[in-house]
Amino acid sequence: MASFLEFLNPLRPFETVRSVALDFDRMEERSSSIVPPPRSATSGVTTSDALSMASVYRAISILSTAIKQVGVHIYRDDEKLESTPLWIKQPDDKITRAEFMARTVNSIALAGNCFWLVSRNPRGETVKLEVLNPFDMLIKSDDYGNLLGYTYRGTIEYSIRDIQHLKALTVPGNLYGLGPIQSCQPELLAIKDTRDYAATWFTDSAIPSGVLKSDQMLSPDQAAAAKTAWNATAGAKNGVAVLGNGLNYQPMYLNPKDAQFLENQAFGVQQVARLFGIPAQMLLVESGSSMTYSNVEMEQIAFTRYTLSQYYVEIEQNLSALLPRGTEARLNIESLLRADTLTRYQAHQIALAAGFKTIDEVRHDEKLPMLGVTNIV
Predict the structure, then answer these.
(1) Are 241 and 249 in contact (CB under 8 A)?
(2) What is the secondary structure of 175-237 as a DSSP string?
(3) What's the mean per-residue pLDDT of the chain?
(4) E strand or H helix at 350, and its extent?
(5) Which pLDDT tens digit goes with each residue over 161-214?
(6) What pLDDT band is residue 301 in, cutting at 50, 70 and 90?
(7) C-beta neighbour count of 340 within 10 angstroms
(8) Rounded to an integer, what distance in angstroms lies between the CA atom of residue 27 and that of residue 36?
C-alpha cells in the first residue's frame, strides 16, 4: 500500500528539494545590491500555498473556466446520438455539470489525480458520478504494483469498479498521477519566497534604511550611542538630527521596482505559465513583444490542443468507459475554437458557394432557427 506522499518521494523528496536552490550566502557585494530572499523553512509548497499565488490561481481559473464551456455528446460509430443519458447531462445531482467539470479539472491540475465515485443501478448501469477529494484517497496495491482498490479518508473502502481514476502525467511504475505542483516544487518555492520577501521588505528586511559613516575610529559603545541618538531624533516628528565626531548620514534609497522584485516576480509568472501550459498573455504577462490578432488566435488554438486536451481527453476516456460498449463520449470543444464573426461568415460563404452546406445548416451552426431552406446559394 503506497500513499500519495510516498509515491512522490522517490521522484523528488521534499526534504531534498532545497538542494537545487542557489547558495545565496556566496553572493558578493551585499551592501551595494539587493540581498536575495532567504529560503523559507517549510518542507514544500502545499496546494493552499500554490493557490495563494496570483499566477497559479489565475492559471487554475483559466482551466476550469474553459472546461465549463464544453458540452458532452454521445456517439456510436461516429454518429452522434440524439439522446444523452441523464447522468452525462448532470453527473452529480447535487451540483451543476459545469461545477462537476470544474472540480474534475481542478483536482487533476492541483493534485495530479481525480477520483470519480461511480454509483450504479441494480442492472449495473451508471446513474451518478461524484468527485472525491484526491488528497483523502489512498491507492492500495500489492508488492508487484497491481491495483487492489482504494481507501477513502482512512476508513471507507472502494473496489476498482467503484472508482474512475483520472490522472495528469502518468509515470510508469506508479499508480498515482503526477501534477505540476507536486513535480516542480523548487520553481514554486522560489516564486513563493520571492513574493513573501518582497511583501515584507520595508518591515522585516535586514537592509537598514541608512548608514552613519564616520571619518574617525569609533568604539562599539560610541557606535551604539550614535545609533541610539540618531534613531531618537530622526524618528521623532519634526526631529532635528545632530551629528558629531565626523558622522555623516547616508540614506539607502530603493526604488519601488527593486523593492518589489518586479522582474523576478514577472519571471515567476512566466514559470507558472510554462508549468501549467497557459499562454503568458492569458496570465496578463507583458512579453515585451507586440501580439497581433493572428498570434493571439494561434496561442488560443495551441492552448486548446496541447494543454486543455490533457484534461478533456482524460475525461472523454473515463466517461466512455462507463457507457455501453460501442458508444463513446466526446467533448465539444468547437466553442473554444470558435472564430470571430467575420471569419465565420467568410467560411460560411465559401461552404455555401462550394455546395457542401445549406442555409439551414449554416444557421444551425450559428445557433439560429431553421428557415426550411435547403437550396444552395
Answers:
(1) yes
(2) SSEE-HHHH-HHHHHHHHHHHHHHHTHHHH-SS-SEEEEESS---HHHHHHHHHHHHHHHTST
(3) 78
(4) helix 341-354
(5) 999 999 999 989 899 999 999 999 999 998 898 888 777 766 666 566 667 777
(6) confident
(7) 9
(8) 9
* Amino acid at the residue 150: Y
Matching residue, cell 482551466: 63
Alpha carbon 360 to chain centroid, angstroms: 41
> What does the alpha-carbon distance between residue 147 and residue 163 come to, in Å, rounded to a whole number?
12
Buried b (16+ CB within 10 A) or exposed e, 215-246: eeeeeeeeeeebeebbeeeeeeeeeeeeeeee
Nearest to 119 by CA among 158, 145, 147: 158
Q: Which of 88, 85, 84 is nearest to 101 (CA)?
A: 88
Q: Which three cell numbers stand for residue 239?
A: 526631529
Q: How far is CA 216 from CA 62, 97, 227, 247, 248, in A?
A: 62, 76, 15, 8, 11
Considering the entire predicted model, what is its pTM? 0.71
Helices (H), 2-93: 4-8, 47-51, 54-68, 86-89
How many C-beta atoms surround the C-beta of residue 374 within 10 A?
10
Strands 79-80, 156-158: parallel, antiparallel or unpaired by DSSP?
unpaired
